Amino acid sequence: MLCIGFPPSIDDACHTLILGSMPGVKSLQEQQYYAHPQNRFWPMMATLLGETLPAAYPERLRMLLRHHIALWDSIGTCERAGSLDSAIQNEQGNDFTALLQTYPNLHTICFNGGKSAQAFKRFNKDLLKREDIDFHAMPSTSPANARWRMPMLLEAWSAVIVR
Fold it and tell me: CA-CA distances (angstroms) from residue 118 to 19, 33, 38, 83, 154?
């Protein structure tokens, strides 16, 4: 199945960009980042930011933007059956050169999982040389990453996501 990612959730004040790989089936159906009910992303972010988790998706995006955090994916399009990153084939990366030119305040990029980091590195070798951007490979919040319990995720991500 051909999968087409979402546009970034970002504004001019954002300094941190969190990148997934490609939205899963539930997220694509809902047209929402991290829509799978077992994905720990939204509860984790609310906890780290000291916020109550909003029920409505637009409010969740606004919560991140209030804290100057943007969302996007390393992969713009791919072919995949199901939701597992391991099933991704024929991926094409998003245009981060243009994104970073448009949003020069971005100085921290966090990869939500190994596939996100792998895809970004594959398509953006030159950007990885930039000394004005900190790159962080983070453990995935996906339910497929079951060995990482919420307290472990909170500890790892708190080193990068600051209120």
Answer: 11, 19, 24, 17, 22
pLDDT computed for residue 15 by the predictor: 97
Residue ranges of domains in the chain? 2-158
Dist. CA 38–CA 107, nearest whole Å? 30
- Active-site annotation, residues: 39
66: amino acid identity, one letter? R
pLDDT bracket for residue 1 (50, 70, 90): confident
pTM above 0.85, yes or no: yes
Going by C-alpha positions, the residue among 8, 126, 7, 10 that lies closest to residue 68 is 10
If we measure between CA atoms, which residue out of 71, 140, 148, 139 comes closest to residue 103?
71
Topology at the third CATH level for domain 2-158? Uracil-DNA Glycosylase, subunit E (3.40.470)
Q: Please state, in angstroms and rounded to a whole number, the distance separating the CA atoms of residues 85 and 101.
A: 28
pLDDT for the residue 20: 96
